[in-house]
Design goal:
The protein is of the alpha/beta class. It is built from 14 helices and 16 strands. 44% of the residues are buried.
Length: 409
């Protein structure tokens, strides 16, 4: 088990791919996969709440609830006080979850079908609630009875450990399942345990806030051993390259930042956006950075190691160009030359807004060689580029990213 930090490199898989992996991972051990998942959850529970007197497991009727039942069984066998609230379902539980329930029952775990009110009253900040209500297949808004359980977890005085994903969070998009309802309070876990592989929604939208510290138990999955294509990578692998001592500013590439329309020329006064981009290029290791503010503007607040030049004086064919930051309406006149001449281009902010309103610019962008242009839209800009709504972008970011690439390349 490992904590997923900002420096971890790990593939992110969708629920369908994880389900495809499960039979192969089951073959790695004689123990049921669900039992191994529950053991990992129990071990993490003890690590994060070593002085807990009460462990409350809120278990749904599916396989996520089965993981919670297995965790409860292990905690009970280790001498801990555990109660499981198992949410019933008219269609029953899947076979693996039923087997987990039977193992927990045979071990003597207290299992009931409602909320243990007296038990909850006795819990304090040392104790732990395990959220095992919904797993990685959750996509529908929460129903009223589930909302009541979520509210109890939310008000629990102890820490919350979510298995797979905090209930109420869409594991793919990172948006709330009840995004149009004010009647639900989604769970904000202190810790979230991902099993086999993490889901994209844990790192997008509300995921970072909802999940707390994210942990991963791979249950034997190693990306290099299975021919599967991840949805995305958490911190994709790359080979960091240190600057050689015998190098100089001309050895590390030149960046030009074009943007920052002045208020005097009808802009919003967002010259700082261009200055920040130029400063970031310096910190990222660029050899030389040119700042081209629109409207024949120069400013004293730019870093001293940034060179201010009119964009018309730059050899764009030899540069990495960033265009649009705070560019306002002035950037529209600049873009035709930038799109035609820039060797490598990052198109941002007002550069993207100009693109949505100008068919000539759209044609020029599509004519550029593949792989030589990066666009960096925020959700509203992405919605404009695709002719949709921001809510659609937030609910399906990865797939719509593919749509953006297809439309504009």
């Amino acid at each position: 088990m490992q904590a997923l930090t900002h420096s971890c490199i790990w593939p992110l898989l969708d629920a369908k791919t994880v389900r495809q992996l499960e039979p192969q991972l089951q073959a790695l051990s004689p123990l049921p996969l669900m039992e191994r998942a529950g053991l990992a959850a129990a071990q993490l529970a003890l690590a994060i709440a070593p002085h807990a007197r009460h462990f409350w497991v809120a278990a749904g009727p599916g396989n996520n609830g089965g993981d919670g039942l297995e965790a409860a069984r292990h905690l009970h066998l280790w001498g801990k006080e555990v109660v499981v609230s198992l949410m019933p379902h008219p269609q029953g539980s899947p076979p693996h979850a039923q087997a987990a329930r039977q193992r927990a029952h045979d071990a003597g775990v207290c299992i009931q079908n409602d909320l243990p009110e007296r038990w909850l009253e006795q819990m304090d900040e040392r104790d732990l609630c395990i959220d095992a209500l919904l797993g990685i297949g959750a996509t529908r808004p929460l129903e009223a009875d589930l909302n009541a359980w979520v509210e109890k977890i939310h008000r629990s005085p102890g820490q919350v450990l979510a298995i797979d994903v905090p209930t109420g969070l869409n594991p793919q998009s990172g948006q709330w399942l009840n995004h149009l309802s004010a009647d639900t309070t989604p769970i904000h876990a202190h810790h979230t345990l991902s099993l086999i592989a993490a889901q994209t929604g844990l790192f997008m939208g509300h995921g970072r806030d909802a999940c707390g510290q994210i942990w991963l138990e791979d249950l034997g999955y190693q990306a290099h051993s299975y021919p599967l294509s991840p949805q995305a990578w958490l911190n994709p692998p790359h080979a960091p390259r240190a600057k050689a001592h015998a190098s100089h500013k001309g050895s590390h590439g030149d960046v030009a930042v074009i943007g920052g329309q002045a208020m005097a020329t009808g802009g919003m006064g967002m010259t700082g956006a261009a200055v920040l981009a130029a400063t970031a290029a310096l910190h990222a290791g660029a050899g030389r950075v040119f700042l081209s503010l629109l409207g024949d503007l120069t400013i004293d607040s730019a870093p001293q190691d940034v060179m201010q030049r009119a964009w018309t004086l730059l050899e764009l064919e030899k540069l990495f160009v960033v265009c649009g930051c705070g560019g306002g309406t002035s950037v529209t006149a600049v873009l035709p030359d930038v799109l035609k001449r820039s060797a490598h281009l990052v198109l941002d902010a007002d550069g993207l807004n100009s693109l949505t309103q100008n068919k000539e610019l759209q044609t020029l962008l599509r004519a550029r060689a593949k792989g030589h242009t990066v666009i960096t839209p925020h959700p509203l800009e992405a919605a404009r580029l695709l002719g949709t709504e921001t809510l659609d972008i937030q609910g399906n970011r990865l797939n719509l990213q593919t749509s953006l690439n297809a439309r504009w390349s």
